[in-house]
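[job 0412] stage=fold_complex status=start
inputs:
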Amino acid sequence: MDEQLVERVLRAVEQIPRGRVASYGDLAELVGVGPRLVGRVMSLYGSNVTWWRVTSASGDLPLALADEARARWADEGITWKPNGRGCRIRDHRVDLTRLADDYERAVRDLG
DNA sequence: ACTATGACAGACG
DNA sequence: TCGTCTGCCATAG
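[job 0412] stage=fold_complex status=done
writing structure:
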């Protein structure tokens, strides 16, 4: 894995404000890579950051992570509908353009 | 070198 | 609302 890329992805995740979520695709667009790569980075290094604010485009997470994530969501006031279908997580997606500002800053301050 | 498979997404039937 | 297919990048076999 390209360390630079990993850093950029993780940095992007950290820009997601409390109480909001972003999809893998959102982050991918922000970082400038394919969504699958973001998924891969998260699977490897996600536990180091606020991974529960990253959901799939449909608002779901793998079963194992869902339990943990739900607790976090409840704590942050993120509403969701149990039983997958019609998950309301989508209503909490961040405005990508606003996220981009903070992200640019974060990446600049990195080097 | 080639294929299959992912914490994925978008288009289409 | 489901399958299916294609694009995406890295890894494993």
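[job 0412] summary: Chain A has one domain: 3-95.
[job 0412] exit 0
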